[in-house]
Specification:
The structure holds two protein chains of two kinds. Helix content of chain A is 83%, strand content 0%. Chain A is mostly helical. Chain A is elongated, with a radius of gyration of 17 Å. The chains are: A mainly alpha, B alpha+beta. At the A-B interface, helix 1, helix 2 and helix 3 of A face helix 11 and strand 14 of B.
């Protein structure tokens, strides 16, 4: 079943809106947050950002954000990534059934 | 910046922060069918999961696509705020800025919203509103001539002969803000105290030493001597168990505190460390649940699973999950009060009441039941985070799982957030 890219964009916007309005977005975020924190990812990132900021002159939020974003994305543990992806996938599936 | 503009800005800031604080509370209970309106970006119409709001006009926009920053530049407005964190961004500096007035306003607004949303389970009262302390005339005069000391309380402790177990616990007391405030607030005056060998007096002296101008390492000799006198197990120069000393010390301080009682005591120790554990035993036959509530000063966590092997999860949360996992009791171990027969039953522990300071002990000594050998120490490192949310391990939340509508709202998430 192929859809044109503007139709997919439209669907994406709609599902995204539903997710935020129903509060599911925040719940998924909380779930992800607690798993990453338990794994130590959050604390490690915090340290990394702090150390980077310590030696940066002039200190700029944007630069720190850029530098640690790529590291952050790359170090998300695969099991957590899988689990959250599945949870979101399930939500999207359920939306189509309604 | 002139006063009316500044006032307008701060008012807008407060409104925005309050909006988010309310919204995040409303999305906490799972399964609520209520739909909440979400703002959309004024540039691209996308739903904003993390709105950034301009402080000078009604514009709201995305951060990641630079819509909000473009607006600030185009409209000549200086500031916008990230609703989730309350951080203020300045277009001129092209960076986030920090100001104590903003921090104060953020904290007071968020606390106010949380207060409104907290419901006590037993007393059915609203939460008391937090009032900032402002010194009156007398107090201001007294404070004018006072020297301000840093509150970090850093002073080394001398090892008095294998007393590292002792020093470690003392340092944890020294850095406990609640204990520090109590003793530095002169709540236990050694000159007025009538106890002999009083541990509370020792605590008072300890705090005075730590915050004195002498910063060379301090040897807590009289504290050690008093501890030996009141607790025979801890005496002598051999290595002792830090946790045992911790509990002993807490009981000593409680005992010598003014106004301590044996039942629902309100002394500083109980105010700080005391919580409650609930044990629910469900009879497999008749589904009758017997609940027992026990007071506790800390939580002891097993490191090995029931099968005897190390569980895969070497984290604090993993240990807590293990702690609150339902456990089967053998038929011989339990007699149901309702159907009065020995049946199989399932026991589950949960935290009924969280203390202000939550302490954990990892049970690292494995007692071999077969031989009389010295217990083996389990050295596996356990990962613990800088902050943890304790809600999933509380009785209230565990009992609410699986229900569609949250029949009782567990309260703002921040009430369950603990920092290391």
């Amino acid at each position: 079943m192929s859809k044109s890219s503007s139709e997919t964009d439209e669907l994406y916007t709609q599902i995204h809106r539903r997710m935020v309005e129903s509060g599911e977005w925040d719940r998924f975020l909380r779930l992800l947050s607690s798993k990453l924190s338990e794994h130590g990812w959050s604390d490690e990132l915090c340290h990394r950002a702090k150390e980077r900021a310590r030696v940066m002159d002039p200190l700029s939020f944007r630069t720190v954000l850029e530098e640690i974003s790529s590291h952050a994305q790359a170090t998300v543990p695969p099991p957590i990534r899988r689990e959250i992806t599945n949870v979101i996938r399930q939500y999207v599936k359920d939306q189509f059934e309604k | 910046m002139d006063t009316p503009a500044r006032e307008g800005l701060l008012t807008k800031y407060k409104t925005v922060v309050a909006w988010h604080a309310r919204r995040i509370q409303d999305t906490s209970p799972p399964g609520k069918r209520r739909k909440l309106s979400a703002p959309t970006c004024d540039t691209c119409d996308a739903t904003l999961s993390r709105p950034f709001v301009c402080l000078s006009c009604p514009f709201a926009g995305c951060w990641s696509d630079e819509h909000i920053t473009s607006h600030l530049i185009e409209a000549g407005h200086s500031f916008c705020v990230d609703t989730r964190s309350g951080s203020v961004f300045c277009a001129d500096c092209d960076d986030f800025i920090y100001h104590p007035a903003i921090d104060e306003l953020y904290l007071s607004t968020v606390v106010l919203i949380e207060e409104q949303r907290t419901h006590f389970q037993v007393a059915k009262r609203a939460r008391e509103h937090y009032q900032v302390w402002t010194p009156n005339g007398e107090e201001s005069a007294a404070l004018k001539d006072a020297t301000v000391l840093p509150c970090q309380g850093r002073r080394g402790l001398l090892n008095l002969g294998q007393t590292c177990f002792f020093n470690v616990i003392l340092q944890s007391f020294i850095h406990n803000p609640l204990l520090r405030n109590y003793f530095l607030g002169d709540r236990h005056n050694t000159r007025l105290c009538k106890h002999a060998d009083c541990t509370c007096c020792e605590m008072d002296n300890l705090f005075s030493e730590i915050y004195s101008s002498n910063q060379s390492p301090f040897g807590p000799t009289s504290f050690l001597a008093t501890t030996w006198k009141v607790s025979a197990e801890v005496s002598g120069y051999s290595q002792q168990d830090a946790h045992e000393f911790f509990i002993t010390a807490l009981n000593q301080i409680h005992g010598t505190c003014r106004g301590s009682t044996n039942i629902s005591c309100n002394c500083i120790i109980h105010q700080t460390f005391a919580g409650q554990l609930q044990s629910d035993v469900t009879c497999e036959r008749c589904r009758n649940i017997t609940s027992t509530v026990d007071p506790m000063l800390d939580i002891s966590l097993e490191l090995k699973g029931m099968g005897g092997e190390m569980g895969g999860e070497n984290s604090l949360a993993g240990c807590l999950r293990r702690f609150t996992k339902p456990e089967k009791l053998g038929a011989k171990e339990y007699s149901c009060s309702k159907c009065t027969k020995a049946h199989e039953a399932v026991k589950r522990l949960s935290i009924r009441k969280l203390p202000l300071v939550l302490s954990f002990q990892f049970k690292r000594f494995e007692h071999k039941t077969t031989s009389k050998a010295v217990p083996k120490k389990i050295g596996t490192p356990v990962r613990f985070p800088a902050s943890i949310n304790m809600a999933p391990y509380t009785t209230l939340v565990m009992n609410n799982l699986g229900k569609d509508e949250a029949s009782s709202y567990p309260g703002p998430e921040t009430m369950y957030e603990y920092d290391l």
